[in-house]
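Researcher: I'm preparing a figure for a lab meeting and need a structural model of a single chain. I don't have an experimental structure, so a prediction will have to do for now. The sequence is pasted below. Please return the structure as tokens so I can convert it later.
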Amino acid sequence: MATWHNKPIFREVLQIKHNLARKLKELRKKSGLTQAELADKLEISASAVGMYEQGRREPDNHTLSKICRILDASGDYILDLDEAAQMHEQKSEIYSVISNFIKNLENEENLMFNGEPIDESERKKITSALKVATAITLSDIDKTL
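Model: Understood. Here is the structure written out token by token.
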């Protein structure tokens, strides 16, 4: 039985939180700031910054906006929106290429394999295998997010 924490959306939210924490710490260090110095600039406590960097808490929109300005980073970068969009584009391209190939395979007449004609049953098996392989590939890409 699947539990709520095994749902893809929950894993995606956890990944976003983890990436936010990692990038915040990375950008703060790159800027040469301590947690306390960043906290002063954000007008929040140093412990809040520490919790952000540990992924135990997320900044509200106003604080996130200030973080972006202070650390000279885009919200898209900090929230991984640029990477997610790029990954979605790659998935769409993979799906499109394979879908077109499957359509061509389904509509092609006189297909041969090792010099022997492929009958309708074999054609369906091949297209089914390609569809399963596509689904697995796209699922594997989701796991990398």
